[in-house]
């Protein structure tokens, strides 16, 4: 499966930040995305606070974030960044193993448009990523 | 004898001669046997009135010994086939006659059966409630469990896809390191999932009977914490639990775990909306008991609730979130092991203390209860000293199957205390133990002039050392680990032989 991104030159490829406390899941997502050769920079963070630091240091186009994280839940990052002018073009993809009605509402309220349920396949991940980036 | 008194008694009474022929009967006798005086006059002996018990045999016994004879509880059928539970009593009189008293206990017996049945029913309902409580607990922590499962599942399925892509590329040799990493990752993920599911299954496993075994409190506590790991992580709670040591008690592993889960989960619920939350679990011991403390720094329990928390169906949680059974059931479980759960007064948070008797105490009380019944000379009471629950359980199974009694001790100090207080016929001791080796125990025992046979239990002991101790402390022999039932049987046979 190929990623249907608008044709861009090398400098304009999107960068991705992956936030999950499970390092192996981060690496897995990173491997899947690297294989497509459509991304400039793929960075990993293990918590919301680390993710916020990395967001301030570097420009990203997409955040793939787990719902359940050790310090705060993933929506709190989205809550913060979506209010800031600096990150107004940032896109989000939420991944989670389990979402009940209450937490689903929280995710939608925060402004997340796409959710990926664990366990996911490579194809499902890439489909979602390209969908989010096209919006 | 003034027979007119007997006529006014509400109990069947008769006088018979040596052959069992009626010479007198009171009013109630004829109405009890539903026989008219005409019928009673015709019969040759009292035995013709009912079947199911040989009254003439009891009569001849009474005659031979010239003493009062009382029968056991017997079920007799009258001639109209109606059934009665009765006790016979035969009292020899001066004039070669015998007074036969019949105590009709049918009503009591029926009530007893009825209550027995009702109690069985209550017991089964109680078990169902315990199971329901477990299901509720699992229900409440399902969200975090499914999250726990989905992470390793993602890793396994994703890595599998990577592996597929790698094999399709064909160049396996240059990728062998990568492939190995993938396989290890998948393997590790599956064992993570497996252990989560296993913990859940063990917890939900329904025990038909209350099966007791020797278990280490720490192990039970750890499996409880493993099951709750997701919930604890989600709420950012710091949990400190006791260092691993073998604090062995005689209990049902699932039920003990249920108690621990209930207590920890209560704390987690109290801490859910709070920063810097902490649960501290402490394990201490006194002479006869283990004390397990569960302390959290949550909002605590208010005075109104304090009086009611151990009651069934009392809950402060929202409808649908708690059954209000947790503490009530935990109390029942712990009390069935002669222990207790109490709420300790504290300034902040909640502090529960569980007290469980050490296995030495439990096994001794079991033994003294049972040994009152069995006084066979083939019966041995055996002291086993080992700090591993697995070995104790194995020996307990073998030894009770062979019909002997087992007293357990987890270290040599406990063992010495047991020997001071109780007579045992055989001592089997592990050789290598943290608080002192088997030879120290043997020395202490021989110093007290106790000549009970002692066997070592070890795989690693050297022949020369064994030989030396056999001479020095009169050690009877070695049971090699791993051992089988027949090895134990052999040793027990030898000891029974020498005891005779």
What does this structure look like?
The complex is a heterodimer of chains A (135) and B (500). Chain A has helices at 23-36, 48-57, 74-82, 101-110, 122-134; strands spanning 16-19, 42-45, 62-66, 91-96, 114-117. With 135 residues, chain A is of the alpha/beta class. Chain A has one domain: Rossmann fold. In chain A, helix 1 (23-36) links the parallel strand 1 and strand 2 (42-45). The radius of gyration of chain A is 14 Å and the shape is globular. Chain B is of the alpha/beta class. Chain B has helices spanning 4-7, 27-32, 37-42, 55-65, 106-169, 176-204, 217-234, 253-271, 303-306, 326-336, 359-371, 389-401, 412-421, 438-447, 463-473, 485-499; strands at residues 13-16, 22-25, 50-51, 69-70, 74-78, 83-92, 98-104, 213-216, 238-240, 248-251, 278-285, 289-296, 340-343, 351-357, 381-385, 405-409, 426-430, 454-458, 475-480. In chain B, the strands form four sheets. In chain B, strands 1, 2, 3, 4, 5, 6 and 7 form a seven-stranded antiparallel β-sheet that branches. In chain B, helix 5 packs antiparallel against helix 6 (176-204) and helix 7 runs parallel beside helix 8 (253-271). Chain B is extended, with a radius of gyration of 33 Å. The mean pLDDT of chain B is 83. The A-B interface holds A 22, 24-25, 28-29, 31-32, 35, 68, 70-71, 96-98, 100, 117-122 and B 143-144, 146-151, 153-159, 161-162, 165, 185, 189, 233-234, 236.
């Amino acid at each position: 499966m190929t990623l249907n991104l608008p044709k861009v030159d090398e400098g304009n490829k999107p960068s991705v930040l992956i936030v999950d406390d499970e390092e192996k899941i981060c690496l897995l997502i990173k491997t899947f995305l690297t294989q497509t050769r459509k991304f400039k920079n793929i960075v990993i963070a293990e918590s919301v606070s680390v993710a916020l630091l990395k967001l301030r240091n570097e420009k990203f186009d997409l955040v793939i974030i787990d719902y359940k994280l050790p310090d705060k839940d993933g929506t709190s990052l989205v809550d913060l960044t979506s209010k800031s002018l600096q990150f107004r073009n940032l896109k989000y993809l939420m991944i989670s193993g389990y979402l009940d009605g209450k937490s689903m509402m929280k995710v939608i309220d925060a402004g997340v448009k796409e959710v990926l349920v664990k366990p996911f396949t490579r194809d499902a991940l890439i489909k979602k990523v390209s969908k989010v980036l096209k919006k | 004898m003034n027979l007119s008194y007997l006529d006014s008694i509400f109990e069947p009474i008769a006088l018979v001669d040596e052959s069992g022929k009626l010479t007198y009967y009171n009013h109630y006798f004829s109405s009890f046997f539903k026989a008219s005086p005409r019928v009673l006059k015709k019969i040759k002996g009292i035995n013709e009135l009912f079947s199911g018990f040989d009254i003439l045999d009891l009569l001849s016994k009474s005659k031979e010994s010239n003493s009062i004879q009382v029968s056991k509880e017997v079920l007799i059928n009258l001639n109209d086939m109606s059934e009665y539970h009765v006790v016979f009593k035969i009292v020899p009189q001066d004039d070669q006659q015998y007074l036969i008293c019949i105590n009709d206990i049918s009503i009591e017996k029926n009530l007893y059966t009825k209550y027995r049945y009702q109690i069985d029913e209550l017991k089964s309902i109680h078990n169902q409630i315990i199971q329901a409580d477990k299901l509720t607990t699992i229900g409440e922590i399902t969200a975090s469990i499914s999250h726990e499962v989905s992470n390793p599942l993602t890793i396994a399925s994703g890595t599998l896809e990577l592996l597929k892509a790698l094999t399709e590329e064909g160049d396996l040799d240059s990728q062998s390191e990568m492939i190995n990493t993938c396989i290890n990752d998948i393997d590790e993920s599956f064992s993570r999932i497996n252990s989560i599911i296993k913990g859940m299954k063990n917890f939900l496993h329904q025990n038909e009977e209350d099966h007791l075994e020797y278990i280490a409190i720490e192990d039970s506590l750890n499996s409880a914490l493993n099951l709750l790991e997701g919930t604890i992580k989600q709420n950012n709670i710091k949990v400190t639990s006791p260092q691993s040591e073998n604090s062995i008690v005689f209990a049902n592993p699932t039920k003990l775990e249920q108690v621990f889960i209930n207590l920890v989960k209560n704390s987690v619920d109290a801490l859910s909306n709070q920063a810097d939350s902490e649960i501290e679990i402490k394990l201490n011991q006194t002479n006869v008991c283990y004390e397990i403390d569960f302390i959290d720094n949550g909002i605590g329990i208010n005075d109104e609730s304090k009086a009611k928390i151990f009651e069934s169906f009392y809950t402060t949680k929202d409808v649908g979130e708690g059954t209000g059974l947790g503490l009530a059931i935990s109390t029942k479980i712990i009390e069935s092991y002669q222990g207790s759960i109490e709420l300790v007064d504290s300034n902040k948070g909640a502090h529960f203390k569980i007290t469980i008797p050490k296995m030495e105490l439990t096994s001794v009380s079991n033994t003294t209860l049972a040994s009152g019944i069995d006084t066979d000379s083939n019966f041995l009471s055996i002291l086993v000293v080992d700090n591993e629950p697995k070995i104790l359980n194995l020996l307990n199974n073998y030894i009770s199957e062979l019909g002997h009694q087992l007293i357990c001790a987890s270290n040599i100090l406990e063992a010495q205390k047991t020997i001071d207080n109780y007579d045992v016929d055989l001592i089997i001791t592990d050789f290598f133990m943290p608080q002192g080796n088997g030879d120290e125990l043997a020395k202490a025992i021989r110093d007290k002039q106790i000549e009970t046979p002692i066997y070592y239990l070890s795989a690693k002991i050297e022949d020369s050392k064994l030989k030396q101790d056999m001479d020095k402390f009169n050690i009877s022999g070695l049971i090699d680990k791993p051992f089988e039932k027949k090895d134990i049987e052999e040793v027990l046979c030898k000891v029974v032989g020498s005891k005779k």
